[in-house]
Write a structure and sequence with these properties.
- The structure is a single chain.
- It is built from eleven helices and eight strands.
- It is an alpha/beta fold and about 290 residues long.
- The protein has a single domain (about 30-290), classed as Alpha/Beta hydrolase fold, catalytic domain (Rossmann fold, 3-Layer(aba) Sandwich).
- The chain has an eight-stranded mixed β-sheet with strand order 1-2-4-3-5-6-7-8, sandwiched between helices.
- Helix 5 crosses helix 6 (about 160-170).
Amino acid sequence: MTAAAPGSIPDPDSSLTDAELDTAYNVQRGVGDRLFGQLMARYRDESERAVAGLPGHAGLVHDERSGERLDVWGTDGGAPRPVFVFLHGGYWRALSRADSSFMARTLYDNGAATVVPDYTLAPHASLEEIVRQARAAVAWVHRHGRAHGLDPERIVVGGSSAGGHLTGMLMVDGWQRHFGLPEDVVKAAMPFSGLYDLRPMPRLYVNDWLHLDTERAAALSPLLLPATRHCPAVVTVAEHDGTGFLAQSRRFHARRPGAELRVVPGRNHYDVVLDLTDPASAVSTTLLELLHSV
């Protein structure tokens, strides 16, 4: 698959009015402020519960340039474990690694480890810099993971919402050589409710902190970037997600070699990823299958 020029793949959102575009992508409004607040609190509560007493290493610097840190959870001194690198959401300006380790105990109990990096939030960092930091976190796992109980040859990446976008940017070609990494450093991926085509962003309220123009938005869109390597992936989205996120997930799935699409029934944009707290859920089962197949 070759790189796409900004205009070579049609942007279905270009025909929408500003009000229609806001409806498609303003998922916080879609769930309401009360439920949104409850779910954000649950992210933190479930994360604290998951890592309580869990072996690991917290607060390790993964990127010397920015000083950003990550946490490693679920290693116990035995053989290096396959690792899930999870990139949090928050429309690139909110949340942190402290809200994002809720899957760590499920994975630990099933033979895998979890890495949750921080990245500098917008507008304090450009989106290009945020992408670089996400890639630096994967580079850290590959170079230093073995010393912390991680298998650098079994890295699976994932993330929710903005973290789904960052996951997509880890699935594309070319960035690996800039970090001295093998092209297949990412063995599989599971993005949740991601944004893969950022061309609508300059017309949305999120541009108050992203400050994107059309050209930069296209250059930061994984749907428009080359991905020639077969990378097993499960593109996951909620049944009751925003219509923009549903449509983008379907389009991204269609353009990614080795990808399958999973629409999770009964879930919304924010609670779909919390199914990873339940080892019996379909999304947990799928993630564990990915981790143990690479």
